[in-house]
Specification:
Elements lengths: L2 E4 L9 H22 L7 E4 L6 E8 L4 H14 L3 E7 L13 E7 L11 H7 L11 E7 L9 H12 L3 E2 L4 E3 L4 H16 L36 E10 L8 E8 L12 E4 L5 H10 L7 E2 L8 E2 H8 L7 H11 L2 H6 L5 H8 L4 H7 L7 H6 L7 E4 L10 E8 L1 E4 L2 E4 L1 H9 L5 E7 L14 E4 L6 H12 L6 E7 L2 H4 L3 H9 L5 E6 L9 H7 L1 H9 L3 E6 L4 H17 L3 H13 L3 E5 L1
Parallel strand pairs: 3-4, 3-5, 5-6, 6-7, 6-8, 19-20, 19-22, 20-21, 22-23
Antiparallel strand pairs: 1-2, 9-10, 9-18, 10-15, 11-14, 11-18, 12-13, 16-17
Helix pairs in contact: 1-2, 6-7, 6-11, 17-19, 18-19, 19-20
Length: 603
Amino acid sequence: MSIVIPTLPDSAPFTAEQRAWLNGYLAGLLAAQTQRNGSAPALNGTSAPAAAPKKRLLFLFGTQTGTAEALAHKLSKVAATRGFAPEVKGLDAYEKINWSEEKRIAVVTSTYGDGDMPDNAQGFWNHFKTDAAPKLNGVTYSVLAIGDTNYPDFCKAGKDIDARLEQLGATRAHPRTDCDVDYEAPAQTWLDGALSALAGPEGSAASDSIAPAVVAPAEAAPDTAIAKPWSKTNPFPARLITNRLLSGSGAIKETRHFEISLAGSGLAYEVGDALGVVPTNCPELAAEIIKTIGCTGEEPVTVPGAAAPIPLLDALIKSLDITKPSPDFIKYIATTSKNAEITTLLEPGNSDALRKFLYGKDILDLLLLCPGIPWTAAGFAAQLKKIAPRLYSISSSIKANPEQVHLTVSVVRYTTNGRVHKGICSTYLADRAAEPATVPVFIQTSHGFRLPADPKTPIIMVGPGTGVAPFRAFLQERRAIQAPGSNWLIFGEQKIANDFYYREELEDLAQTGYLHKLTTAFSRDQEAKIYVQNRMIEEGAEIWKWLQEGAHFYVCGDASRMAKDVDAALHEIARTHGGMSEDESKAYIQSLKTAKRYQRDVY
Ligand SMILES: Cc1cc2nc3c(=O)[nH]c(=O)nc-3n(C[C@H](O)[C@H](O)[C@H](O)COP(=O)(O)OP(=O)(O)OC[C@H]3O[C@@H](n4cnc5c(N)ncnc54)[C@H](O)[C@@H]3O)c2cc1C
Ligand SMILES: Cc1cc2nc3c(=O)[nH]c(=O)nc-3n(C[C@H](O)[C@H](O)[C@H](O)COP(=O)(O)O)c2cc1C
């Protein structure tokens, strides 16, 4: 028997990414139909020989904000067209996996915090790094790590998992690939190599784009941005309809409320998701850089993703990151200019001093510090990374705001060397994306930062500063669906007079019975600083009571300090009010995470 695998013709009106996704989708449908009635519909394609046994392949993802999860699903669909029977699971499912039966594993993981495991991989890692971890002899595997070279511990979670699987007896079938923010192309290359190696000697050629056998259905992907026509690589040009200052005139921080129209996009989201924004740079900064390197801006340069060279000025405004100096840029400029100070700071053991030196400095600062380099336009552009999209926690419910998405953004502006430095994306939204201009956006589906399935379940939300964003969305959603569960928001900022974001809305929610408790911590309204974690300790007995009643606990906002302090406060509450030892409190908090009752959206 031979079957026909349908593929869309190249002339079909889709982008390569859309076509690839649709082909995968059709392949899945075909497989399902083949299983049901033993025949395959002939659409347009090539004949393939009779079915060979499919090889089970377990994709495991570690994710914080959903990228690795969406990528694992996308890659599994390709694997399904190459003779594999893939299944996709989060690393948080590690206890439910029968490790002795798995023969092929593909790990796709991000890194978070300071080289840490993403939240959904922490329980897995705590177990796997101990002697209690299962032996993995007979397992073949490969790891795809996604990260960001701007972090000192680039792709550390992937590196750690890769090394540990080998220590546990598994065989690395294909070397790990560490991807920077532009992960799509390296991920595809890794997949080709990994599938070929994991297939074993009798396996199909990995470069085949069509399976030599019946295609296996991948597990249904969640409703991810990557599986839709509008995506990170193909963002929807949305209209910015509101740009309003939330902070008062005397505030130190500038925090803004944005409303963006999704009309005509077909995009939808759930509360807990984030919006990806693809910004452009400040044109004045681009012009200043061009002047400093002695170019005109008209020189043609090559940029990643562009079919043909574009003028340097365009590249510096639209394509390349012209603010954050990457590690490669710093090395290049130090070597080429022979700058003794930076060269010394780059030596091993000086990373803290280097970080202090770089704090607040952008690419223009370094160019001015290292004069005399004979830059060419092409040589300069080649030293820059692509602008990375920024994520923002969505602060609206689509049920309360049809076809709209709202953001709550702290605008980055600070002065170094007498010059105002502007965060790329927050000032793009605040200053440069004025109506009727469009903002390229995509939905980043969250991995598990979600309201409880049962609307009666109480929730505690700790969201200082812009961390309030997803909780405004949660509260709007709970009102829209008339959820009876109790809602407690713990909000904090500097001063009540300037920084009580959404005060009227929150008071209205309280009056209408959808905000049952509002606790605030304004750090600078009294001599001693008071933060949300201090309020948590004060309210410890009540928090413990809510947790005993099944409350879900959420944290959003600053990852570097606040989220750690809130985590410590939660452990302290379990010890003080739950009578637990230190170890018991750790086990209890981990059990909340495992039950998805403790969720974080921290950055
Ligand atoms: C899942 C997720 C959700 C997020 N949600 C939100 C949200 O709801 N609201 C929100 O506002 N942000 C949110 N962020 C952060 C957001 O994505 C951006 O990182 C933020 O807006 C800054 O981006 P930017 O392009 O404006 O600044 P960039 O160009 O990236 O510049 C920021 C950098 O400037 C430097 N810097 C900043 N301030 C100073 C200073 N005072 N002195 C010296 N150097 C300084 C730091 O190096 C900092 O990393 C979220 C991030 C993630 C990952
Ligand atoms: C707060 C924060 C911390 C991060 N820390 C690291 C890090 O230490 N090392 C690294 O390589 N990447 C780091 N990253 C980059 C992420 O790994 C990268 O954005 C990845 O694509 C996120 O994938 P996910 O959505 O699956 O979690 C960090 C990102 C954020 C927002």
